[in-house]
């Protein structure tokens, strides 16, 4: 008798994704879940007027590209309105900043425009070298930077130079962050020592504050779902087609493997997965590992891969006062996303 086909189960430790500079550039587009994002399908919360205001301002920012330069009875050129070269969306997690950033990318004229996370741009510089990265990005109409964070002085100097050169060449910049540009780096390194660089970078942006509550928590309340180890195998494949691929790793095995893969390549670890399995989850006290998990969860969320996990709840992993430290907003964003992803792995009854 032929055995019934089952889903393919792999370990993420078997994957070591590689990417060159051209692959990074080719991948600088919005994640799949925002492939159809637009200002029209963004749903502002009526209780927070700043959300609707952001749509209006971003639409004007995008439409300024299309201003007619000529007109009048004597053919005189019409002066285009003065538009600051950058726009910066500051707000808490879950208020739709990435949706708005992707909407701007879709609306902006092409053919060359880029959308990526902060770490993808710094990785591009690492792969190409600074001057070659500037050359590769020069000529773009728009560069969108999601999850803008300055975690060390080197990143501060690098992004100040890069954005300055690109703005000077005519490129517009749009960014999102959970931190106002003037406060980037606070609680993480001696930001005061690099104040001039941070202020120079901030000068490129018009800052929009977007208030609101986490839309994921409005849709899904409570904590991360924890799967009983006795039911783990069943939960990992429940409701999936027979040709689906799932991963199955212990938390420690995943943590150890993440240390061997650059965060810019984390997306390659989960390519093609229908569900992510993590066994024996436990509290973290090492900040480096905690930040690696945050970067990994960001990519899992972009790909919308549901998570099945056993051990302690994933929203309880950040220990040792991490939620009170300089990276608390990053951890809170990861918690919000992990709650949504563990609920997504539970078939609706």
UniProtKB/TrEMBL annotation:
Signal sequence, renumbered to the chain: none
GO biological process, one term: cell division
GO cellular component, one term: cytoplasm
InterPro entries named among the record's database cross-references: ATPase_AFG1-like, P-loop_NTPase
MF GO annotations: ATP binding; ATP hydrolysis activity
Pfam family, one: AFG1_ATPase
Keywords: ATP-binding, Cell cycle, Cell division, Nucleotide-binding
Native source organism of the sequence: Mycetocola lacteus
Iron found in the keyword field: no
Gene3D superfamilies according to UniProt: P-loop containing nucleotide triphosphate hydrolases
Protein name listed in UniProt: Cell division protein ZapE
């Amino acid at each position: 008798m032929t055995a019934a086909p089952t889903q393919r189960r792999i370990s993420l430790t078997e994957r070591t994704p590689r990417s060159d500079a051209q692959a990074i550039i080719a991948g600088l587009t919005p994640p799949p879940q925002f492939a159809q994002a637009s200002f029209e399908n963004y749903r502002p919360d009526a209780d927070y007027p700043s959300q609707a205001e952001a749509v209006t301002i971003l639409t004007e920012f995008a439409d300024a590209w299309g201003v007619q330069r000529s007109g009048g009875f004597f053919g005189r050129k019409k002066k285009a309105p003065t538009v600051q070269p950058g726009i910066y969306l500051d707000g808490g997690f879950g208020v739709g900043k990435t949706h708005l950033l992707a909407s701007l990318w879709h609306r902006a004229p092409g053919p060359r425009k880029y959308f990526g996370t902060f770490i993808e741009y710094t990785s591009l510089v690492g792969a190409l070298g600074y001057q070659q990265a500037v050359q590769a990005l020069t000529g773009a109409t728009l560069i969108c930077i999601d999850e803008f964070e300055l975690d060390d002085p080197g990143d501060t100097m690098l992004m100040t130079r890069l954005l300055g050169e690109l703005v000077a060449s005519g490129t517009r910049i749009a960014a999102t962050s959970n931190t106002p540009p003037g406060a980037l780096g606070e609680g993480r390194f001696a930001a005061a020592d690099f104040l001039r660089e941070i202020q120079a970078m901030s000068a490129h942006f018009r800052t929009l504050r977007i208030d609101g509550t986490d839309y994921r928590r409005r849709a899904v309340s409570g904590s991360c779902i924890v799967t009983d180890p006795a039911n783990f195998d069943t939960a990992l494949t429940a409701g999936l087609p027979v040709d689906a691929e799932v991963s199955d790793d212990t938390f420690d095995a995943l943590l150890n493997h993440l240390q061997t893969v650059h965060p810019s390549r984390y997306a390659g670890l989960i390519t093609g997965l229908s569900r992510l399995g993590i066994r024996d989850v436990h509290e973290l006290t090492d900040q480096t590992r905690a930040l690696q998990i945050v970067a990994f969860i960001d990519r899992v969320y972009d790909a919308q891969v549901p998570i099945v996990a056993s051990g302690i709840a994933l929203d309880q992993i950040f220990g040792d006062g991490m939620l009170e430290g300089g990276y608390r907003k990053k951890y809170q964003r990861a918690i919000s996303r992990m709650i949504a992803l563990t609920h997504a792995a539970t078939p609706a009854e």
